[in-house]
């Protein structure tokens, strides 16, 4: 019979080589045997051999065991990858303690959120999965406080998959307007239509089939739906979970790298509680959102503080600073025998004692957004029948802000004259001949998208009643102000309209660049300048009318 040992290196089985792709059949679990080999942890200056032997003596379920030969292969993989066991959960007792502490905290402290109430109360599995799906998509890159009202309106408007599938893209964009990352709403509707038209109205039941069958559903969303709606023990890794895991296991390497990403997913899968997978995943995300925050984490309120390597590192640094012989404190540290541990921060990024646990995870070097400029015009019929009307045109069905409505615009030109000419031509393409003398520059709006920083040069043009207006094509509309605010327009367009409303053009006979700064944005003069201004200002007669009396 093949001898069996506890699975000390199980999560590394998913890596055939340091850069191999993740497999789907890896088991997860831990133990620390006496042969810790090339990536050992130390406790101060002492080896942790005795501690490892204690852990190896614990009883571990059959599902967490592997043949001895397989364990040796996994140990070789750890050695090849130059990874210390310090960053791993080494036995089932440690994993159990993490689960118990986190879930107990979640049961006491979890926020009351509409998608959680719906997931807990909904008995129909497809409606429950749909409710979770909508919330998870909305919460991507968006704060909870912002999502709550959008989610409530969405579920009231389309309570089932069939309701969403029968909606128009315009209706979806209109409800999503202002939430950002607009492709999310389109993917949701596309997925709902596939479920209704091709899957008989039934959501896939596993993370693997959710990711494979539903467009726009990635590994994280699939795992969240499967665990929360269907009770599958599928781990999830989002930004909050990355932060929690990197701190709990002191992972300082770049979490975006393939090796670190694989390890984080492996840890998440190992930790998820098979009895309460949905609650566990939500608890891990809740911990990252409310306690283990990017800056100023509330470590004293953390339910897994005793298992947190980052917290232990802070304690070690504090003890080392207070003792004459640094390094003698009885706290574990990463100490691989050879080479640099690939889960540790690189030597070029030393420990910053002012950050504490916020040294983890490693901060991403963000690529600056691409800068673009465009000229945009708010064209208004102030005396139109039924009230003033604004011209909006629809963007193409693909690309940035696909399908949303906006004011007519063109790419910015090197000179204002060329810019006005191009913009006037664009307007005439929609509504016919226009008076060029009334195109007025009003200011600028800068709006940042995920990868683009776009500057809008805002113009305004008010038509009088004598200006003939042609019949508009299908992708252009005249809207009232009320209709504009309710339409599927982006936040950037609302910013543009605020500039127009603040400096609405009159009957200016020439196009000239206006001052974009208002009184509230003007730089306050220095005290010396104020004295000089007062000295040079001519005296005002006592009987001169004030501004207030003139206004009356």
TrEMBL record:
Q: Which SMART domains does the record associate with it?
A: ENDO3c, FES
| Required cofactor names | [4Fe-4S] cluster
Query: What is the main EC category here?
Result: hydrolase
Report the catalytic activity: Hydrolyzes free adenine bases from 7,8-dihydro-8-oxoguanine:adenine mismatched double-stranded DNA, leaving an apurinic site
Q: Name one GO molecular function term.
A: DNA binding
Q: What is its EC number?
A: 3.2.2.31
Task: Kindly state which keywords UniProt assigns to this record, in alphabetical order.
Answer: 4Fe-4S, DNA damage, DNA repair, Glycosidase, Hydrolase, Iron, Iron-sulfur, Metal-binding, Mitochondrion, Nucleus
The record's InterPro entries line, in alphabetical order, gives: DNA_glycosylase, Endonuclease-III-like_CS2, Endonuclease3_FeS-loop_motif, HhH-GPD_domain, HhH_base_excis_C, HhH_motif, MIG/MutY, MutY_C
The region called Disordered is annotated at 21-58, 511-552
Nudix hydrolase domain: residues covered: 369-501
Q: How is the cofactor bound?
A: Binds 1 [4Fe-4S] cluster.
Annotated Pfam families: EndIII_4Fe-2S, HHH, HhH-GPD, NUDIX_4
A cellular component term (GO) from this record? nucleus
Its GO biological process annotations read:
base-excision repair
Query: Where, per UniProt, does this protein localize?
Result: Mitochondrion; Nucleus
Q: Which family does it belong to?
A: Belongs to the Nth/MutY family.
Role of this protein: Involved in oxidative DNA damage repair. Initiates repair of A*oxoG to C*G by removing the inappropriately paired adenine base from the DNA backbone. Possesses both adenine and 2-OH-A DNA glycosylase activities.
What name does this protein carry? Adenine DNA glycosylase
Organism equals: Sus scrofa (Pig)
Q: Which gene encodes it?
A: MUTYH
């Amino acid at each position: 019979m093949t001898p069996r040992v506890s699975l000390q290196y199980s999560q590394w089985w998913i890596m055939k080589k340091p850069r191999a792709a993740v497999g789907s059949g890896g088991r997860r679990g831990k133990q620390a045997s006496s042969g810790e080999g090339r990536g050992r942890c130390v406790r101060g200056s002492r080896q942790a051999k005795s501690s490892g032997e204690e852990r190896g003596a614990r009883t571990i379920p059959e599902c967490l065991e592997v043949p001895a030969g397989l364990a040796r292969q996994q140990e070789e993989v750890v050695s090849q990858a130059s990874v210390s066991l310090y960053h791993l959960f080494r036995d089932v007792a440690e994993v159990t303690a993490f689960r118990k502490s986190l879930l107990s905290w979640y049961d006491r402290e979890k926020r009351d959120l509409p998608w959680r109430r719906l997931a807990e109360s909904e008995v129909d599995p497809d409606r429950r999965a749909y409710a979770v799906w909508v919330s998870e998509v909305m919460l991507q890159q968006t704060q909870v406080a912002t999502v709550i009202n959008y989610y409530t309106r969405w579920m009231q408007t389309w309570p089932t998959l069939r309701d969403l599938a029968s909606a128009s893209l315009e209706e979806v964009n209109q409800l999503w307007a202002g939430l950002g990352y607009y492709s999310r709403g389109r993917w949701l509707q596309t997925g709902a239509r596939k479920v209704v038209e091709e899957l008989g109205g039934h959501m896939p039941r596993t993370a693997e089939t959710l990711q494979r069958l539903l467009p726009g559903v990635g590994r994280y969303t699939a795992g969240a739906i499967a665990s929360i709606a269907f009770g599958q023990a599928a781990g999830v890794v989002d930004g909050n979970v990355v932060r929690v895991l990197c701190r709990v296991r002191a992972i300082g390497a770049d979490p975006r790298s393939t090796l670190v990403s694989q390890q984080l997913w492996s840890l998440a899968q190992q930790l998820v509680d098979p009895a309460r997978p949905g609650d566990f995943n939500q608890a891990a995300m809740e911990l990252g959102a409310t306690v283990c925050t990017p800056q100023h984490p509330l470590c004293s309120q953390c339910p897994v503080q005793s298992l947190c390597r980052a917290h232990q590192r802070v304690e070690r640094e504090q003890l080392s600073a207070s003792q004459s012989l640094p390094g003698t404190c009885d706290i574990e540290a990463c100490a691989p025998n050879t080479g640099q541990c690939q889960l540790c921060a690189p030597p070029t990024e030393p420990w910053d004692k002012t950050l504490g646990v916020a040294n983890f995870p490693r901060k991403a070097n963000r690529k600056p957004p691409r800068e673009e400029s465009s000229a945009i015009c708010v064209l208004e019929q102030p005396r139109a029948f039924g009230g003033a009307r604004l011209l909006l045109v629809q963007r193409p069905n693909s690309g940035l802000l696909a399908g949303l409505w906006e004011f007519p615009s063109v790419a910015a030109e090197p000179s204002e004259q060329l810019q006005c000419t191009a913009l006037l031509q664009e307007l005439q393409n929609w509504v016919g001949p226009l008076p060029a003398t009334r195109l007025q520059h009003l200011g600028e709006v800068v709006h940042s998208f995920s990868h683009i920083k776009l500057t809008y040069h805002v113009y305004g043009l008010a038509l009088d009643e004598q200006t003939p207006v042609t019949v508009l094509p299908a992708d252009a509309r005249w809207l009232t102000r009320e209709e504009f605010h309710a339409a599927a327009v982006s936040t950037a367009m609302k910013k543009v309209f605020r500039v127009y409303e603040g400096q609405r053009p009159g009957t200016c006979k020439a196009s000239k660049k206006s001052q974009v700064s208002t009184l509230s944005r003007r730089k306050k003069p220095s005290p010396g300048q104020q004295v000089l201004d007062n000295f040079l200002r001519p005296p005002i007669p006592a009987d001169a009318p004030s501004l207030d009396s003139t206004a009356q």
